[in-house]
Amino acid sequence: MIVAGGECDSNGTCAYMSPERLDQQERRFGEVGLAGDVWSLGVVVLECYLGRYSLIKDGDKPDWAALICAICCSEKVEIPVSGSPEFRGFVERCLEKDWRKRGTVEEFLLHPFVRKIEK
Question: Deepest of 18, 43, 88, 116, by most Cβ within 10 A of its Cβ?
Fold first, then answer.
């Protein structure tokens, strides 16, 4: 999370934190900018679509280790094929594990999923 003055802070709900915020090997608060917030947005948007937390299998009650593994170690997040191509593309770009490859805020402002909502 970016706080006043552009400083990075790791406060928040762990279930919505990005891999680079949770992985001790990847902690680079000064470098990642808004990438962690973009990840969190993707988790929330997918959760709204599914009606449940999206990174853990439906019905599972994960412990801390399972949550960290789901965020940091699992393969790409499954995005339902029932969503529109724009929706799937938006969420996929938000939930890119590598923060260097993840979509940017500027990109998302022009993304077809967001532009479609504006109309």
Answer: 18
